[in-house]
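Technical note accompanying the year-one report. For the benefit of new consortium partners, we illustrate the data format agreed upon in the data management plan: each record pairs a sequence with a structure-token string. No post-processing was applied to the example shown here.
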Amino acid sequence: MISSTNMAALYSANAANKWSAAATTASERISTTYRINRSSDDPSGMMMATTLSAELSSYSRTLDNIHSGIAAIQKVDASLTTIASYLTEMRTLAVAAASATDATILSGYQTSFDNYRSDITDVATYTTLNGSSLMDGSTTSVSVQVGIAAGDSRSLSFSSATAAALGLSALDISTSASAAIDTIDTALVTIGNYQSLVGSHENLMDYRETLSDNMILSLTSAYGNVMDADVAAETTNLATYQIRQEAAAAVLVQSNTITKEMVAYLLQSVTS
């Protein structure tokens, strides 16, 4: 134990402890790559980092929500394109039936027509999100949280696109081809309007996706500026602190035979 009367020894011991603590801090920063490893390292910096981390986590979750919304929209968009192609085929069959007189040919047209009509309902029914159909009328809207603030959500509206909803259920091109053509034309307009609505939904989601991506990049950079250690600088610091710690320890060994002033001079020579 160092006597309190031996000021030179105390001075040397304090210096050795100082550089030992500095070396430990530098080593920890190199190991973790963080400048702040506990609140006492930088109280205000830790508080800022905690806030940034919470915002970053929220924006990441928001981005997941937006991606789910985009996935739903893209499913509906693809299904609408398929339904439009089926309606086009049905119209072609109706036009052909309008000029046909052979009963067998008309029956064949009607069979193909019925198959397309059934396929439209199947497409609408099996366009789903998390098990819920988006195009059979059972789901009219999906709310998507697109920002981190409370209430910053958008409602994506969906409509039924089954054959019944499009007015196709009772069509018979073998007897009323012209009426079927008019009904199909109306259905094509309905699908076109639906595609326009879905396109506006997707544009909105794409815009909010870009905003969230940019915020995540900005927050990640800000968090790094607060928390990340300069590993190269800390490596240099560690080597310097270890040299100074060893020098202080060496001086401590001789402190019983030299004055405090001489200790100070020797320590100054290795730390300057």
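Partners are asked to follow this layout when depositing records. The chain has two domains: 7-33+229-271, 45-227.
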